[in-house]
Recover the amino acids of this structure.
């Protein structure tokens, strides 16, 4: 039997018995309430009956006084009878279910009407000065009508007193039965639920205890007890626990094997990292050495080209002084001022180009080897220095707007290189067809995380090429800055290789060696941040830089 059916039986049987007990309690409670109501009605009837004759007696006293004083004004024809009428009407309503008592009330009312008629006659006689026939009313006795009322009222009260005693006795018995039924119901309910608890403990509790013991054994990795018998949910859950125990044992063996493989892979990865680090250092040293060694030939080329230019000038003077035929002189002058001068010009441009490439290589090499001076950096101040260090006339090509820039954590000189390269890149790629505008600012806290999440939804290739392998250390808060322009924009096909070294935007249409963005990316990564771009061709570009807002913490 399933637990649901067992639970229904364990709940339904005690509940049905309790409902029967509650029915008995409610019946006795209803009887007690009815008996209490009857007793209360009897007391109200007795109280009303006890004061029923008072208005008639007061009227008899007024009649006597009126006869003695011969003043009919003492006789009240309305107030007394209105009071009496209200009282006897209420009393008749209260004993309406008792014909005997109701008949007595009717007779009392008849006698009262007879007395009222007599009082009216006395009043009329007094007004006519004919009160001699009513001298008996001034005696000690009461009028016969009132005596009859009192006689009937005494019989009514005696009968009602008997009813009240019987109803009070019935009320006491009903309350005793109610108390006995309540005690029986409480004791019976306790016994029923005690029996239910015993049945539950024997049938379900033992099985739950066995299931709990197996769960504890599973938690500590001890072998489980044999599976429970039966087809209820407890047996099913115990079977699942035994199956889970077997699978955990199998998983533990697999984990051991995977752990061994992971250790091997970790050793291989550590070795690969060491090799990569060594290769990076070798590459940097190679770049530095090659750049340094190439400077000497370039200096020689530059010096000898100047010497050749000076020699060409001396040769021209000698040609002018020599007495040569005009056609020979003209031919030699054309050689010196044409081919030789043009060749020297190309040689000087090639030397300058090679020198700038060497300088770019040296900057890239130094970016990975310099020791940073970590401190709280005023970004607004380093942006001012970067703007002041722009090439002559470059800053006048656009309206530059600098918004509020919160501080960051890093090396001042390195961060100045980042912003200097980004601003220089924005100014070099403005659209000549419209006034240039460059905006430098910072995103609100949280907005940079949203843009970073949007960037992570791009393809893996684009993310790797645009943002690079970020070395942001886990747990460090960052602040995102931006440099926005309304320039020519960047074609989407160019974005994957935008941050690579020696990649020049739009071919030869712009100045520079194509290393500024790569250098900015490398500096940002060494700061534990990242750099990315959002661009629309023909509308402009926005470069974002995420920098640490606090000292870096190890992951």
């Amino acid at each position: 039997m399933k637990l649901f059916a067992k639970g229904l039986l364990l709940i339904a049987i005690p509940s049905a018995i309790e409902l029967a007990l509650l029915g008995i309690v409610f019946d006795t409670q209803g009887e007690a309430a009815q008996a209490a109501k009857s007793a209360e009605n009897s007391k109200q009837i007795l109280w009303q009956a006890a004061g029923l004759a008072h208005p008639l007696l007061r009227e008899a006293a007024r009649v006597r006084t009126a006869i003695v004083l011969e003043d009919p004004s003492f006789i009240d024809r309305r107030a007394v009878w209105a009071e009496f009428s209200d009282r006897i009407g209420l009393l008749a309503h209260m004993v309406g279910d008792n014909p005997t008592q109701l008949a007595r009330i009717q007779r009392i009312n008849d006698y009262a009407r007879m007395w009222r008629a007599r009082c009216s006659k006395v009043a009329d006689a007094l007004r006519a000065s004919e009160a001699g026939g009513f001298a008996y009313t001034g005696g000690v006795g009461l009028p016969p009508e009132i005596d009859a009322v009192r006689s009937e009222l005494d019989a009514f009260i005696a009968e009602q007193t008997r009813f009240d005693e019987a109803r009070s006795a019935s009320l006491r018995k009903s309350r005793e039965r109610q108390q006995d039924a309540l005690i029986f119901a409480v004791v019976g309910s306790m016994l029923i639920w005690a029996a239910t608890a015993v049945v539950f403990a024997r049938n379900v509790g033992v099985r739950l205890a066995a299931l709990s013991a197996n769960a504890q054994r599973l938690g500590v990795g001890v072998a489980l007890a044999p599976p429970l018998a039966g087809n209820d949910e407890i047996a099913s859950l115990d079977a699942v626990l035994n199956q889970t125990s077997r699978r955990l044992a199998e998983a533990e063996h697999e984990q051991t094997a995977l752990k061994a493989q992971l250790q091997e892979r970790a050793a291989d990865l550590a070795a690969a990292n060491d090799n990569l680090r060594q290769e990076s250092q070798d590459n940097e040293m190679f770049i530095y050495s090659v750049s340094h060694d190439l400077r000497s030939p370039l200096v020689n080329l530059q010096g000898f080209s100047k010497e050749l230019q000076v020699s060409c000038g001396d040769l021209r003077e000698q040609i002018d002084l020599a007495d040569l035929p005009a056609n020979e002189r003209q031919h030699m002058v054309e050689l010196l001022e044409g081919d030789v001068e043009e060749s020297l010009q190309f040689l000087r441009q090639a030397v300058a180009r090679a020198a700038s490439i060497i300088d770019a290589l040296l900057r890239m090499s130094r970016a990975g080897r310099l020791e940073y001076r970590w401190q709280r950096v005023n970004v607004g101040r380093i942006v001012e220095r970067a703007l002041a260090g722009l090439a002559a006339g470059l800053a006048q090509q656009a309206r530059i707007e600098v918004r509020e820039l919160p501080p960051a954590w890093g090396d001042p000189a390195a961060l100045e290189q980042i912003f200097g390269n980004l601003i220089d890149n924005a100014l070099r790629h403005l659209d000549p067809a419209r006034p240039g505008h460059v905006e430098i600012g910072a995103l609100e806290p949280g907005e940079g995380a949203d843009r970073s999440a949007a960037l992570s939804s791009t393809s893996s290739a684009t993310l790797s090429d645009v943002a690079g392998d970020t070395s942001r250390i886990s747990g460090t808060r960052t602040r995102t800055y931006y440099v926005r322009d309304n320039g020519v924009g960047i074609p989407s096909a160019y974005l994957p290789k935008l941050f690579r070294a020696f990649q020049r935007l739009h071919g030869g249409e712009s100045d520079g060696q194509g290393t500024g963005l790569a250098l900015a990316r490398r500096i940002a990564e060494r700061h534990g941040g990242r750099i990315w771009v959002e661009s629309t061709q023909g509308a402009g570009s926005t470069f974002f830089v995420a920098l640490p807002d606090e000292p870096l913490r190890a992951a």
